[in-house]
Amino acid sequence: MAGATTDDRCVLALDAGTTGVRTRAVFADGRPPISSYREFTQFFPHPGWVEHDAVEIWDAVKVTLLDVIAQLDDPPAAIGITNQRETAVAWSRSTGTPLHRAIVWQDRRTADRCAELTRDGALPMVRERTGLVLDPYFSGTKFEWMLTEGGIEVSDDLALGTVDSWLLWNLTGGAVHATDPSNASRTMLFDIRTLAWDSDLCELLHVPIGALPAVMPSSGRFGITSERCGVPAGIPISGIAGDQQSALFGQACFSAGMAKNTYGTGSFVLLNVGATCPPPTEGMLTTVAWTLADGTTAYALEGAIFVTGAAVQWLRDGLQIISSAAEIGPLAETVGDTGGVYIVPAFTGLGSPWWDPYARGTIVGITRGTGRAHLARAVVESMTYQVRDAVDAMSAASGTQVADLRVDGGASAMDAMLQMQADQLGVTVRRPVDQETTALGAAFLAGLAEGVWPSLESITAQWQLDAEFVPNEDRTFADLFHGQWLRAVERSREQPVGDTAE
Fold it and tell me: Of the candidates 93, 130, 260, 452, which lies 20 to 30 Å from 476 by C-alpha distance?
């Protein structure tokens, strides 16, 4: 591999995603990685509610971690953690027992509370201090719900955190309750300029600041594994980042103006905007990308799209028109267009740039001639339209044009989709050889802290191009189809009076 070193050490990345956990051994000398994966259960107790069992997530981490360690010749140099970000976990410090099921980032149960806070005038403060919007996507109102509707009592024994904090707590045998700025910046409780928990926001949402984790640099030693956790003791845990910021790091987007998109359960476009926190940007989120051990901080603008890969799962599990996710690309390519069909997969509302928690999934343009291939292609095209919506808003608001887009995630394997994406954006789309960039980012952050990679330049040298997709210079059809898509989006937002997410 280009940029490989003589260092034969490896770093383990724990990638705790929305539907499963992957442990991946990343080698500094460029050897093929070793990985292990396990899914966990999704719970849907009410319409719009999504929950996980935090113990099941931790068990999946242990199984995959031990599986990978058993295949190594030498102990790993470090562990890095990356995670589904806004998912909220509450547990007892004394027993380590979760006090409620984890409330997942997709969950919309606090939509009415967010609307109430907006009516009460809280949005300007939230936007200014956190870079976020008032939306049930973020952790703050989830914590508040747990402490009110969820029946959790506030005490010194209470620990609140996102999935990274829960895993770090368990890995260290309860010795460390901490997070990093990239995850903290997604809670709606964290001032992204001072890089500290905000007492006014905690008071607004009735969240005890003492229950929240300490905030430490994304790259730096958090602690070491404990013999009590069920995995080998003494391994440094030296990197933590939320999954999308981790993917930005894994894509080596270290300079302002570099951007990536991850096609996962949802899609997330991040643009590195440098070391200075920009003012709130309409339709976009401002987030901490990472903080390194030397104190340097990078910020990013983010476009958050709630449903892309999840729409493929819906075709598979809900409509059953495909039997595996891998079928969607070939099926979509059997037709030259959608026959006028547009699918807006607003199954849990719309994210950037709309931020409409009440929007609902919509299919328009169906005729008697519509077949399963047209629906498959409409889902594929919806991914590219949603990314364009986010990038267009990001560029318009910030004045920063995305020169190219580095992509990763499951759907990035579809060449035809990436060509559609390039045509929609009007910029070149680049896919790396190693598309597990979320795990790579966690490994790089931890390895950087422990000297496995001596510098950002040494990490950049390991990024390799697999394929690039150059846009068609004639944008006539791309703009025409996108215009029709925007009409379909408006249909998805036209909800009857009184209709809510629940």
Answer: 260
Average pLDDT over residues 218-235: 94
Report d(CA 383, CA 385) in Å as an integer: 6
What are the structure tokens assigned to 50, written together?
């999504």
Query: pTM, whole model, 2 decimals?
Result: 0.85
Which domains are seen in the chain, by residue range?
Answer: 10-250+433-463 (3.30.420.40)
Tell me the CA distances in angstroms from 97 to 62, 121, 166, 264, 419, one per residue in order.
16, 37, 10, 30, 47
Distance of CA 228 to the CA centre of its chain: 30
Given pLDDT bands bounded at 50, 70 and 90, which one contains residue 498?
very low
Strand order of the β-sheet with 259-263 is 285-291, 297-305, 267-274, 259-263, 404-408, 428-432, 465-469
Q: What is the DSSP string of 51-119?
A: EE-HHHHHHHHHHHHHHHHHT-SS--SEEEEEE-SS-EEEEETTT--BSSPEEPTT--TTHHHHHHHHH
3-state secondary structure of 214: strand
